[in-house]
Design brief:
Blueprint (H helix, E strand, L loop, with lengths): L7 E5 L5 H8 L5 E3 L22 H7 L4 H6 L8 E4 L3 H4 L3 H8 L4 E6 L2 H14 L7 H13 L14 H12 L4 E5 H6 L1 H11 L19 E2 L2 H8 L3 H9 L2 H15 E2 L5 H22 L10
Parallel strand pairs: 1-3, 1-4, 2-3, 4-5
Antiparallel strand pairs: 6-7
Helix pairs in contact: 8-14, 11-13
Protein name: Sulfotransferase domain-containing protein
InterPro entries: NST/OST, P-loop_NTPase, Sulfotransferase_dom
Keywords: Glycoprotein, Transferase
């Protein structure tokens, strides 16, 4: 194992404030995150290709499939922590073994969220990318077929929220002392406190950089489909900006524009109740595993 081997992983869950944590942690002088936020290289042994959902071919092309290219993401870096943030590593939880084989001393960060809200947010993520054509209710009914037909994990709205086995795999592989778990709800309420807790977990003291409360990767109904499409999708103008505008500033501007462009939508109460019952047993097992009160997640 070389000195440029990654040793910090934000493994998920998707739509649970992982981007917010990634953006703020990379401001620390002792932390480097790869320019490619989600290489998804280490989860590849647990996925089938090609993926067959609408737009999955684009996501697949963005994955790093070469060992050499993966390690090049961290070449010539001297920071104490070299990290990446592939959020499918939690869903494909056997990836914990791949990370451990790569670096048994790695630190793991897991962000989780009320799985009902997470599912709805993932749905709107694909809806706003113009990939999801069904209603939320119909999409949930179609999920098993989509899984069988090898749709990318982001389409697995219900399945991705079954956290117990996912989190357990990382705790058993790395030990509780090397796994830091955050709730998206706590991050939203106190981002500074959440970042300070991570830095303490990493042995890096307290925050010495600016913290903002901008919501990254927001979801909801876009007021302007034109703005939504321009900001979310790749285009020549955005590709040009990569060479002249710092990444942190681009991320902040994107988050501000999307936050103002979205109107929050609420889930049908009948569907919320059904999903809550679906997740209750799994949440209760997770509560015991991480010794944290999650009763608000399964209250009807």
């Amino acid at each position: 194992m070389g000195t440029e081997t990654p040793n910090l992983f934000i493994v998920g869950a998707a739509k649970s404030a992982t981007t917010t944590i990634y953006i703020h942690l990379q401001k620390h002088e002792d932390i480097f995150f790869s320019e490619v936020k989600e290489p998804k290289y280490l989860s590849r042994p647990y996925k089938e290709f090609p993926m067959r959902g609408p737009g999955d071919d684009v996501s697949e092309k963005e994955e790093i499939s070469s060992k050499e290219v993966y390690f090049d993401l961290f070449s010539n870096r001297k920071e104490k922590y070299l990290g990446e943030a592939s959020v499918d590593y939690l869903y494909y939880y056997h990836t914990a073994k791949e990370i451990h084989n790569l670096n048994p001393k790695a630190k793991i960060i897991i962000c989780i969220r009320n799985p009902v809200d997470r599912a709805y947010s993932a749905y709107w993520h694909l809806k706003n990318d113009e990939r999801e054509a069904l209603s939320f209710e119909d999409a949930l009914k179609e999920e098993e077929n989509r899984i069988k037909n090898n749709y990318e994990f982001i389409w697995h709205y219900k399945n991705a929220g079954l956290y117990y086995e996912q989190v357990k795999a990382y705790i058993e592989t790395f030990g509780k002392e090397n796994v830091h778990i955050l709730m998206q709800e706590e991050i939203s309420q106190d981002i500074k406190g959440s970042i300070n807790n991570i830095l303490e977990f990493l042995g890096l003291g307290k925050i010495t950089f600016e913290i903002d409360n901008i919501k990254n990767n927001p979801s909801g109904i876009p007021k302007s489909k034109i703005i939504n499409k321009f900001v979310r999708n790749q285009n020549q103008f955005k590709n040009l900006l990569k060479f002249i505008v710092p990444k942190s500033f681009r991320q902040k501007v994107k988050a501000k524009i999307l936050s103002k462009n979205y109107t929050k939508t609420t889930m049908d109460q009948k569907i919320r109740s059904q999903l809550t019952r679906y997740y209750t047993d799994d949440i209760k097992e997770l509560e015991h595993l991480i010794n944290k009160d999650l009763s608000k997640w399964y209250q009807l």
